[in-house]
């Protein structure tokens, strides 16, 4: 999780009015039959393109609404579907726009019962949705 990549929303979205989620996928590969999949953030299509499908938790989400209520843009970082990578949103242009992020790799502090463990034994995500099954234990 040391690789950093800048993604400019203007390079991804060609619409002035749009709302949606972006997420990172990790440990992706293509099997011998040509099926593409990822250990975290996989969208289940078997292809690189998700074609409207969401990423399977755990995924750190970046959510956008462009030209929303009153023509304003809204954005946030969410771990509602768990956590797989640190992310930051840094707006450019406009005024009174603050950055938002979840920059800390919380996998190191994730309780064992919430961890998503990779085949090599490393922790690849924190599946926060499992809290209901673990008496609402939280990461402190």
TrEMBL record:
<protein>
    <recommendedName>
        <fullName>Thaumatin-like protein</fullName>
    </recommendedName>
</protein>
<feature type="region of interest" description="Disordered">
    <location>
        <begin position="117"/>
        <end position="140"/>
    </location>
</feature>
<dbReference type="Pfam" id="PF00314">
    <property type="entry name" value="Thaumatin"/>
</dbReference>
<feature type="compositionally biased region" description="Basic and acidic residues">
    <location>
        <begin position="127"/>
        <end position="140"/>
    </location>
</feature>
<dbReference type="InterPro" id="IPR001938">
    <property type="entry name" value="Thaumatin"/>
</dbReference>
<dbReference type="InterPro" id="IPR037176">
    <property type="entry name" value="Osmotin/thaumatin-like_sf"/>
</dbReference>
């Amino acid at each position: 999780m040391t690789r950093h990549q800048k993604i400019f929303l203007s390079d991804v979205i060609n619409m002035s009015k749009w709302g949606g989620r972006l997420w990172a996928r990790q440990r992706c590969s293509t099997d011998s039959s040509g099926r593409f999949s990822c250990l975290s953030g996989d969208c289940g299509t078997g292809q690189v393109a998700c074609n409207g499908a969401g990423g399977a938790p755990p995924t750190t989400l970046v959510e956008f609404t462009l030209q929303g209520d009153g023509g304003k843009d809204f954005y946030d970082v969410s771990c509602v579907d768990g956590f797989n990578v640190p992310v930051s949103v840094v707006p450019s242009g406009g005024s009174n726009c603050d950055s938002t992020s979840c920059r800390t790799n919380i996998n190191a502090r994730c309780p064992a019962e919430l961890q998503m463990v990779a085949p090599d034994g490393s922790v690849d995500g924190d599946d926060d949705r499992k809290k209901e099954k673990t008496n609402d234990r939280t990461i402190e």
